[in-house]
C-alpha cells in the first residue's frame, strides 16, 4: 500500500485547478486581486451606491480605522479590476476568470461560512450576450458535475447586472442554486471605461465551495477551513 | 414578503392553481421561498422581493398585476370598489419644512368608533402573519400590504391646535415610540410634530403621544412620501426597522399616496358609516415626472442573444398594460409611475426576457479574439504547491479570522475580530489537531502546508507556510526558492503513504466518525513462506466495519526461519464511543484465528 509518497491537495485546490483548466481552455485569463478591497471596487464601481438597500444583500465586514475599505464580498471586484486594466491596454474583447476567498459577516452553519470561495468570470466584447453566458456555464457545469448536468437561468436582481439571473444546475435530478449572473450593467461598463452602446458583457459569481460540496457530497462547508487533514481524501 | 392566495385572487380571478402559480413566479419573477397551506383553505407564498421591485411588489396589488401580466389574464382594478366619502371643509394645517418630504397628505375624520375589525380584515392580516389590533390600525396595515404604501393614523385630539409640521427634531429631544421604547433624537431626524412635541419619526414609526386608544373619536390620517436615503440613514441611526422603512428606503412613487388615501378612506367609511370626513390636505412639493423609455427590438435581441420579434414585445407590453408607440422596431413607452425600476433599455431586455422565459436562451459558447496572459502570481502558487505536495506535504486551509492581528473588522458576528497576520499560527493549531488523528491519516508523520493571504498593517501579502516535526517556515510566495526548503530536504527520502481502504481514487467524500478511535498493535510470528497479506486479510475480515484504516505494517524482522510482522489496527464506530471490551473481543477472535493457523502471537 505504499504506492503513493505524495502529499495531498486541499479538495478546493484540486477543484480550482480543474475549474481554471476549463476556463483557460475556453480562452479566459486568470485574475487574482486583493481580499481587503476598497469600497469603490467592491461596491461603487459595480453600481451599488452608498446608502442603497442593495448593499444589505451582502453582509459586509468593515475595517476598523480604515474607512472606505471592506473585506471583499465577492470576486467580481477582481474581474472588474482585470477588465479595467485590459481596457487601458486596449485588450478588448477580453475574458477573465478568478477563484478567490470572499467574506460575509453572518452566523455560520453547515451551509454558511464567514469565509468561502467564489468563482467569478466575465467576458466583454461587441456581441457578447446572455446566451453566450449560458453556453459557457453549461460547458463549465458539465465538466464539473458530469455530462448530463443541465443549467437554467431564473430571474433575479443584482445591481451590477441587467438583466440578472440566478443560475441553477440540475444534478442527479435536483435543481441546485449555484449563484448569480447577468449582463454587465451599462453603469459598470462605463466605470470600466467602455461604451455600453458598443460593448456588452456578461459576469457571473458562483459559490465555489458549493460545487465541491455537491460533487463530492461534503456535508458541511465549515470542514474546508478547519485544517483537518481527514478532509484531504482525493 | 408573505402573500395570500385568496387576497391575490380578488384581483386576478383567473389566477392559476397555487402550484402552477409558484412555478410561474419562480421562472418569470422571483424566488418563492416557502408555500404554506392554511387550515382555512388559503395558501400563503413567501416570495423574495429584491430591491429593484420593492417599489411595487411589496404589495398584493403589485404582485397581482405581475401575475396578470405573465399569465395573460385580467387584472381587476380595485379603485372603483372604494366608496368616496362626501367631505366637508377642514381646519387641518400642515407645514412641510424639509425637502426630504416629497409629498404629504393629511385628512381629519370625525366620529369614528375604535373596535374590532371585520372578519375579512382579520383573516387577510392573519394569513400573512400580522396580528389584528383594532379596526383603524388594521385598515392602515391592510392598505400597506395591499398597495404598498405605509400610512399612519393619529388621534386628532392629541395634536395641538390641529396643526402638523414635517420638520427636523430638536437636539436631544426625547420620543416615546408606539410600544413604549424611548429614543433620543437629533436635528438629522425628520419628524412629524405638533407645536410642542415630536409625534412620529417620519416614515419610520409612530410615537405614543398621539396614539389611538379606545376613547379615540377623531383621527388624523397621515400618508406621505420621503426621500429613501434619508429614511435609510435615520432608521440605521435610531435602530428602528419597520415594514414602513423597508418600503420607503427602497423608494416609493409619491403618486401612490393618492391611491392609498382613497383606499384607507373607503375602508374607514365602510367600518364607520357615520363618520364625517373632512377635505384632504395635499402638499406635493416634489411632483414625480412622467417618464418615457425608448428601446429597440434589435438591442433587446442583442443583449439576450435571442431573436425576439417586435410582435412578441408588443404582446408583452399589452399584457402589462404598458402604453407605448412603436415604429419599425423602435419603441417609446410610458413608464407606469410605480415602476421606478424601468429606466434604461437594458431594463426592458430583462422585462422581455423574463416574461418570454430564459429557457428560450440557447447555450452558445462564444469565440473571441483575445490572447490571455499567464498570471505570474498564480504560476508561483502552483509551483510552490506542487513542490510541497511532491515532498509529501498535505494542504490545509485555515481561518482568516483570528483573535489577534494588525487589522480588525467591525461588528463581527464572531468573537474572532482580527485578520491573521501570519499563516503559521493557524498551521500550528492544525498540526496539533492532526497529530491526535495521526493513526487515522495514513501519514507517517504530520507534514502540512498552507498558501494564503495575510494582512500586515497597511498591506496584504500572499504567503506560503509549512510545518513538520522538526519545525516550520513561512514567507512571501515570491520568496519560495531553494533556501525556503530548509525542512523539506529529508522528506523526499521518506515514505508518506496515502492508503485508502479502496485503492480507487474517486471524488466521493466519506465523512469521518465524530467518536474517538482506539488503536491496537499486534505482532505475529509466521513461517518465512507465508506472506504478510495473509495476516492482513485476517485483520480485515475479523476487524469488521469498525476497522476504519487499512492494517498498517510498522515493523518486521526475520529470525530462525520465521518472520515477525507487527501491524497497527485502528478501530472506530460511526454510532458510538467504542469500549475497550468491544475491541478486546475483536482482538481475541483475531488471536484465535491466528492460533488456528498454528502461528504465534508475540
Structure, described:
The complex is a heterodimer of chains A (234) and B (602). Chain A is an alpha+beta fold and 234 residues long. Chain A has a single domain (11-231), classed as BirA Bifunctional Protein, domain 2. Chain A is 27% helix and 28% strand. Chain A has 6 helices and 9 strands; from the N terminus they run αββαβαββαβββαβα. Chain A has helices at 11-25, 39-42, 76-88, 130-145, 186-191, 208-216; strands spanning 29-30, 36-38, 69-71, 94-103, 115-125, 150-155, 161-171, 174-184, 200-207. In chain A, the strands form 2 sheets. In chain A, strands 1-4-5-9-8-7-6 form a 7-stranded mixed sheet, with helices on both faces. In chain A, helix 1 (11-25) packs across helix 4 (130-145). The model of chain A has no long low-confidence stretch (mean pLDDT 93). By secondary structure, chain B is of the alpha+beta class. Chain B folds into 5 domains: 2-77, Phenylalanyl-tRNA Synthetase, Chain B, domain 1, CATH 3.30.56.10; 87-283, Phenylalanyl-trna Synthetase, Chain B, domain 3 (Phenylalanyl-tRNA Synthetase, Chain B, domain 3), CATH 3.50.40.10; 292-360, Phenylalanyl-tRNA Synthetase, Chain B, domain 1 (2-Layer Sandwich), CATH 3.30.56.10; 376-493, Bira Bifunctional Protein, Domain 2 (BirA Bifunctional Protein, domain 2); 518-601, Ferrodoxin-fold anticodon-binding domain (Alpha-Beta Plaits), CATH 3.30.70.380. Helices cover 29% and strands 25% of the residues of chain B. In chain B, the strands form 8 sheets. In chain B, strands 4, 6, 7, 14, 15 and 16 form a 6-stranded mixed sheet that branches. In chain B, strands 5-8-11-12-13 form a 5-stranded mixed sheet, with no helix packed on it. In chain B, strands 20-24-25-26 form a 4-stranded mixed sheet. In chain B, a hairpin with a 3-residue loop joins strand 12 and strand 13 (205-206). In chain B, helix 5 (135-147) packs antiparallel against helix 8 (256-271). In chain B, 40% of the residues are buried. The model of chain B is unreliable at 491-505 (pLDDT under 50). At the A-B interface, helix 1, strand 1, strand 4, strand 5 and helix 4 of A face helix 2, helix 6, helix 9, helix 11 and helix 12 of B.
Amino acid at each position: 500500500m505504499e504506492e503513493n509518497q505524495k502529499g495531498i491537495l486541499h479538495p478546493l485546490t484540486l477543484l480550482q485547478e480543474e475549474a481554471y483548466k476549463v476556463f483557460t481552455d475556453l480562452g479566459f485569463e486568470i485574475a487574482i486581486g486583493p481580499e481587503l478591497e476598497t469600497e469603490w471596487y467592491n461596491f461603487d464601481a459595480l453600481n451599488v451606491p452608498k446608502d442603497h438597500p442593495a448593499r444589505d444583500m451582502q453582509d459586509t465586514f468593515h475595517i476598523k480605522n480604515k474607512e472606505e475599505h471592506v473585506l471583499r464580498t465577492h470576486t467580481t471586484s477582481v474581474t472588474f479590476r482585470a477588465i479595467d486594466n485590459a481596457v487601458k491596454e486596449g485588450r478588448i474583447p477580453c475574458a477573465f476568470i478568478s477563484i478567490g476567498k470572499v467574506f460575509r459577516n453572518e452566523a455560520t452553519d453547515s451551509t454558511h461560512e464567514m469565509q468561502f470561495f467564489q468563482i467569478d468570470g466575465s467576458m466583454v466584447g461587441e456581441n457578447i450576450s446572455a446566451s453566450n453566458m449560458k453556453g459557457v456555464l453549461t460547458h463549465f457545469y458539465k465538466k464539473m458535475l458530469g455530462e448530463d448536468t443541465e443549467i437554467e437561468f431564473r430571474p433575479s436582481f443584482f445591481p451590477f447586472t441587467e438583466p440578472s439571473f440566478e443560475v441553477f444546475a440540475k444534478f442527479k435530478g435536483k435543481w441546485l442554486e449555484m449563484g448569480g449572473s447577468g449582463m454587465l450593467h451599462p453603469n459598470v461598463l462605463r466605470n470600466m471605461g467602455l461604451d455600453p452602446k458598443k460593448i456588452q458583457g456578461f459576469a457571473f459569481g458562483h459559490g465555489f465551495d458549493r460545487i465541491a460540496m455537491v460533487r463530492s457530497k461534503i456535508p458541511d462547508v465549515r470542514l474546508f477551513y478547519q485544517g483537518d487533514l481527514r478532509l484531504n481524501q482525493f | 414578503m408573505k402573500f395570500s392566495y385568496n387576497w391575490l385572487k380578488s384581483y386576478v380571478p383567473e389566477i392559476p392553481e397555487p402550484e402552477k402559480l409558484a412555478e410561474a413566479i419562480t421562472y418569470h419573477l422571483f424566488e418563492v421561498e416557502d408555500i404554506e397551506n392554511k387550515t382555512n383553505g388559503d395558501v400563503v407564498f413567501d416570495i423574495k422581493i429584491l430591491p429593484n421591485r420593492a417599489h411595487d411588489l411589496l404589495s398584493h396589488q403589485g404582485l397581482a398585476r405581475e401575475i396578470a401580466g405573465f399569465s395573460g389574464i385580467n387584472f381587476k382594478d380595485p379603485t372603483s370598489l372604494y366608496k368616496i366619502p362626501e367631505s366637508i371643509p377642514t381646519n387641518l394645517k400642515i407645514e412641510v419644512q424639509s425637502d426630504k418630504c416629497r409629498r404629504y397628505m393629511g385628512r381629519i375624520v370625525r366620529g369614528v368608533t375604535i373596535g374590532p375589525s371585520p372578519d375579512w380584515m382579520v383573516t387577510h392580516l392573519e394569513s400573512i402573519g400580522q396580528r389584528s389590533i383594532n379596526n383603524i390600525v388594521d385598515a392602515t396595515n391592510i392598505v400597506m400590504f395591499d398597495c404598498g404604501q405605509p400610512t399612519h393614523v393619529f388621534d386628532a385630539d392629541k395634536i395641538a391646535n390641529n396643526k402638523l409640521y414635517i420638520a427636523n427634531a430638536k437636539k436631544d429631544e426625547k420620543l416615546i415610540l408606539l410600544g413604549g421604547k424611548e429614543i433620543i433624537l437629533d436635528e438629522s431626524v425628520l419628524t412629524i410634530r405638533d407645536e410642542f412635541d415630536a409625534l412620529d419619526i417620519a416614515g419610520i414609526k409612530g410615537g405614543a403621544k398621539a396614539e389611538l386608544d379606545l376613547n379615540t373619536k377623531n383621527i388624523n390620517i397621515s400618508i406621505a412620501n420621503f426621500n429613501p436615503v434619508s429614511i435609510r440613514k435615520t432608521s440605521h441611526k435610531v435602530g428602528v426597522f419597520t415594514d414602513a422603512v423597508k418600503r420607503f428606503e427602497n423608494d416609493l412613487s409619491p403618486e401612490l399616496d393618492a391611491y392609498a388615501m382613497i383606499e384607507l378612506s373607503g375602508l374607514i367609511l365602510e367600518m364607520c358609516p357615520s363618520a364625517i370626513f373632512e377635505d384632504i390636505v395635499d402638499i406635493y412639493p416634489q411632483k414625480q415626472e412622467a417618464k418615457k423609455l425608448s428601446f429597440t427590438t434589435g438591442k433587446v435581441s442583442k443583449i439576450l442573444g435571442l431573436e425576439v420579434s417586435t410582435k412578441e414585445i408588443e404582446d408583452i407590453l399589452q399584457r402589462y398594460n404598458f402604453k407605448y408607440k412603436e415604429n419599425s422596431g423602435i419603441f417609446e413607452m410610458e413608464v407606469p409611475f410605480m415602476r421606478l425600476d424601468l429606466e434604461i433599455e437594458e431594463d426592458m431586455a430583462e422585462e422581455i426576457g423574463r416574461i418570454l422565459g430564459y429557457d428560450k436562451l440557447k447555450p452558445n459558447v462564444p469565440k473571441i479574439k483575445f490572447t490571455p496572459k499567464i498570471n505570474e502570481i498564480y504560476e508561483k502558487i502552483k509551483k510552490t504547491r506542487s513542490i510541497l505536495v511532491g515532498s509529501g506535504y498535505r494542504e490545509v486551509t485555515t481561518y482568516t479570522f483570528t483573535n489577534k492581528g494588525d487589522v480588525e473588522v467591525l461588528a463581527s458576528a464572531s468573537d474572532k475580530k482580527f485578520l491573521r497576520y501570519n499563516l503559521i499560527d493557524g498551521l500550528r493549531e492544525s498540526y496539533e489537531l492532526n497529530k491526535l488523528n495521526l493513526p487515522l491519516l495514513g501519514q507517517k508523520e504530520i507534514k502540512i502546508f498552507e498558501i494564503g493571504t495575510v494582512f500586515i498593517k497597511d498591506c496584504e501579502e500572499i504567503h506560503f507556510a509549512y510545518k513538520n516535526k522538526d519545525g516550520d517556515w513561512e514567507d512571501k510566495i515570491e520568496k519560495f526558492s531553494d533556501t525556503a526548503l530548509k525542512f523539506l530536504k529529508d522528506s523526499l527520502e521518506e515514505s508518506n503513504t496515502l492508503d485508502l481502504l479502496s485503492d480507487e481514487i474517486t471524488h466521493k467524500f466519506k465523512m469521518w466518525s465524530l467518536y474517538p478511535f482506539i488503536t491496537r498493535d499486534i505482532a505475529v510470528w509466521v513461517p518465512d513462506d507465508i506472506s504478510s497479506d495473509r495476516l492482513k486479510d485476517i485483520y480485515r475480515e475479523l476487524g469488521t466495519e469498525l476497522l476504519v484504516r487499512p492494517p498498517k505494517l510498522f515493523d518486521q524482522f526475520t529470525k530462525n526461519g520465521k518472520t515477525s510482522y507487527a501491524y497497527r489496527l485502528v478501530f472506530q464506530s460511526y454510532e458510538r464511543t467504542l469500549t475497550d471490551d468491544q475491541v478486546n473481543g475483536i482482538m481475541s477472535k483475531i488471536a484465535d484465528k491466528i492460533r488456528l493457523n498454528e502461528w504465534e502471537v508475540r
